[in-house]
Structures are given as C-alpha cells and as structure tokens.
C-alpha cells in the first residue's frame, strides 16, 4: 500500500472517530428537539459539564473510571430533568425564540459555574482508555478514538432500534408529530418531554467524557457542540438517521479539510457546508417535511 | 325509568385566549350505551364542546369559566388529558389527526397507552382489523399515505384499541364521499351495538348522524337550541329544512333558497 493512501486511510479513520462523537452529540439535539421542538443550545455546555463531572469524580474524589463514567452521565441526565421541569415546561407554548434564548443563557451559566468551580485553564482527564495504538491492517488508529467510535456507534444503534421497536419510541415519535393527538391516545406527553430531556442531556454528558478523554477538557470545549448543531441542521433536526450519517460525514470532511487544507479551514468548510445544504434542502437532508399524498 | 348517565355537561362557558367566548351555558347528557348526536353549523362550538370534555382545551389556550363536566359521575376538572383517556374517555379529534409518519400499526400501538394502569387483557388489534379489513392490508404502510377514508378508519381504530366507555367523535364524515360516509357510519353503529360503548357524535351531516343516534342536540352560537329524541327531531320542520335539506313541497328552488336564508337568519339571531 502506498504511503499516501495509508495516510489518507488513517486520517479518514480519525475523522470517523470524531464523527461518531459528533453524531452522538447531534443525537442529544435531535432527541430534545423531536419531543419538545426546542433547539437546546445548552447541549454543548452539558457536554462540557459531562467532562468536568468525570474529572471531579475520577480525579477529585479518586473514583474508578467505571464508577465516574456512569455518575457523569447520570449527572447530565439529572440536570436535563431539572431544566425541563423547572424552566422549559413552564415556557412551553411561548415564542420558540424566547425558549431558544433561555437555553443560550443556560449554557452561559453552566460555563460560568464550571469556571468558578474548576478554573478556566484546560485539564486532562485521568486516563481510562489504554494508549497502546491499534492497527487496522497497516493503518494506525488511536485507541481512544477507536473506543469513542465503537461506544458512540453502539449507543446510536441502540437508540435507532429503540425508536423503531420499543413502545416508548412510538410514543416519542407520536408526540413529535402531533401533541394533542398523542394526548388523545393516552400518552403522557409531559412525561415524554422529561424523558427526552433526561436522555438527551445524559447522552451529551457521555459524549463529553469521551471527547475529554481524547482531547482533554476546557470550559470552551462546548464549541464542539456547534459542529454537532451543524450536523443536525444539515441532517434534519428531527432525524436520528440524519444525525448518524451527518455526524460521520462531517467528521470525515473536517478531518480531510484540516489535514489537506490546514486547520484554519475546518470551520470554513463546516459552515460552508451548512449554507449549501440549507439552500438545497431547508428542512435538512433527512428531516421530515409534509408528506405528499400519493 | 331513566338510563344511567355516562357524561353530563352542566352550563359550561368557554373562552379562548381570555376573550373569545365559544360556549355560553351549554348543557347536555349522554346516557350509557347510547349514541347522542350534537349538530350545528360551522363555528357553533361543537368541537369546542368536545375539547372541553377531553380537557384538550388548555393546549389551545381555552378555559372553562363556568359550569362543570362529569364523566362517570366524577368531575373532570383538573384531570390531565391522558389521565382522562386512561379512565375510558376517548376523543377522536376533528380532521382525524393520525400520526402520518408512523405506520398504521404504530398508530394503534400509540393508542395502547390508553390502557395504562387498567390491567385487563392486552390490546386487541384484530378487533380493529375485523371492523376495518382495509387497515389490515395496509398495516405496515405509512399512515400519511392512506386515503382520507382509511385515515378516518384508523382514527376510529385507535379509539377501539383504547377500549373506552365513551367515544367523542368529531365529524367523522369530514371530506368523505357519500358512499364512504355510509360505510363508516354503519360501522360506527355496529361498534356501538356490539361493544356497548357510548358515543357523543358531532356532525354537520345531520342525516347520517341522526340515522344512527337515539338522541340529538342542535346548537348555535355556543348554546343548545333544540334537543330531543331522534324521531322527534327528524319530524321537526325546522330540522328537516335546515339540517336534513328536505322541504315540504315542490316549491321553486330559488324561492326556497331565499326562504332558507331568511329563516336561517332568524335561527341565528
Ligand atoms: N383555538 C381557538 N382559539 C380561538 N378561537 C377558537 C379556537 N377554536 C375555536 N375557536 C372559536 O370558537 C368558536 C367555535 O368553534 P368550534 O371549532 O367549536 O366550532 P365547530 O362547531 O366545531 O365548527 P366546525 O363545524 O366548523 O368544526 C368559533 O367561533 C371559533 O372561531
Ligand atoms: Mg368542529
């Protein structure tokens, strides 16, 4: 195999790894949007908080990574539940822009709190994934990225299956399509809202731990969520499949762009893609739009 | 001897967004096991009445400012809509409101939430498919691709899955061909007879509604104007003329239209 091709494969694998994390974060946006029609910008900061919680549990309290990880995910879920009940639920039915702005404000508060508690300087997480490299054939992959890829991939597949085959998935999709009709079928609609926020924020926190394990944590790591937001806007705000495919695609594209064009091109390419995609399909590549009757 | 009452609405007043009054002291009753028709023209307040009963009003910024509603003897005020459904009151909303992105069967699965906390037998989709064989053929299709009539069947099918004791049916004839209306109303009557479920049936198509109901209410402007057993309503001259589109003799059509208009105005005033 030629060196160039091998190199291309290696950076593509790395891109797929970060793409899987993008997809996982995008999934958090999708879950929450689907149920409550709220674009929760604070997903980015919940992701950051997940990283810091892991830091606090593992480095601060000295807990084993396998205890700290579920605790961090739980912490994210708890935060999501509290925010939904305390702030979002009373605002349902208000102007979507107001609700969106509330999530923006919430994100800033989380960043401020993290800075107050842990300081602004970046930290690295206690290692819990081995650093011995992995080889796929001849191609080198960082083990951390491979683990992130597998975990994110499995999580998303589980979600896809639940959505399709579990009764709760039907309830969520029904609520997403028509709230009044969902109520009329006996579905506990506010309960669906809560579950979506809890699971969405837990997912974001989990993604934060994986991301932190790869690149360390900082109070600005929430910008990663912005890329994930691009994924959901391009893939369709209400489409899990869109989040998966869009996340992997953007991960690949970002990896290629930063390697072959230079790191400064990453966001140019990312947001250029956003604009082009919006011009072609305003509701997202996989998002639902009105079905045309045959 | 009077039959037991499953639904009792007493003097309700309803306002939307704190200012638009849609119901002004409306009262009606549904006896157990019967079909009661609620008729009236556009904007009379029929759908508002049903939404008041199923507590779906709050989703549209509507509020009951007076009166009360009792289902099975219990006041429904303050009950969440899903709790009410789970206690046996199913609202088939105007415009069918099926979940278009879900398959036919998933729509029925969604309705199984109505059985939550009731114990009893598991949901019976076969019963739905027995009444509506066409839904069975299309069970794995996306519901959004069904024809209007099939969507109405699915909306009623969801109610069947919920095994309610009272169904509120809002204009099942909406947008359907006369033949299909006939078919669906025949099935509605069968469901009532065979399962014993009570129904409050809202319709603009008075002829078909009265044909399958035992009692009828006619409303205008948020109030009941006239009520009575179906035979009496069908014999009433005004009802025959305005709601059943029949008139006494072989008058000249244009004269009839004018008279119709005048009498209609009187009715509405
Ligand atoms: N969500 C709402 N907000 C404000 N006003 C409403 C709302 N829904 C209904 N109304 C008003 O309440 C009145 C009664 O409406 P309703 O839908 O109950 O009539 P209806 O008898 O069902 O008519 P139709 O036969 O056309 O369905 C109308 O004047 C309508 O404009
Ligand atoms: Mg109506």
TrEMBL record, chain A:
One Gene Ontology biological process: amino acid transport
Major location (coarse): membrane
Entry superkingdom: Bacteria
Cell compartment(s), UniProt: Cell membrane
GO molecular function: transmembrane transporter activity
A Pfam short name: BPD_transp_2
GO cellular component term, pick one: plasma membrane
Chain segments annotated as transmembrane: 6-31, 38-57, 63-83, 95-118, 145-166, 187-214, 226-253, 265-284
Membrane topology: Multi-pass membrane protein
Keywords on record: Amino-acid transport, Cell membrane, Membrane, Transmembrane, Transmembrane helix, Transport
UniProt family annotation: Belongs to the binding-protein-dependent transport system permease family. LivHM subfamily.
Protein name: Branched-chain amino acid ABC transporter permease
TrEMBL record, chain B:
One Pfam family recorded for the sequence: ABC_tran
GO BP field: L-amino acid transport
Record flagged with keyword Endoplasmic reticulum: no
Signal peptide: none
Assigned keywords, A-Z: Amino-acid transport, ATP-binding, Nucleotide-binding, Transport
Segments forming domain ABC transporter: 7-246
Protein name, entry field: ABC transporter ATP-binding protein
Species of provenance: Antarcticimicrobium sediminis
Phylogenetic placement of the source organism: Bacteria, Pseudomonadati, Pseudomonadota, Alphaproteobacteria, Rhodobacterales
